[in-house]
Amino acid sequence: MPILTFELMDVEDANIAINFLDYHQTVADTIDTNISSCKSKVIRYVNTVNDECFIGNGFSPLESIKGNEKPGCVLLTVEILPGRSHEDKTKLGKTLLKLMKATFEIQAQPNIQLRCHIKELSDYYFGV
Question: Which site among 11, 33, 64, 103 is 20 to 30 Å from 57 CA-CA?
Answer without folding.
Answer: 103
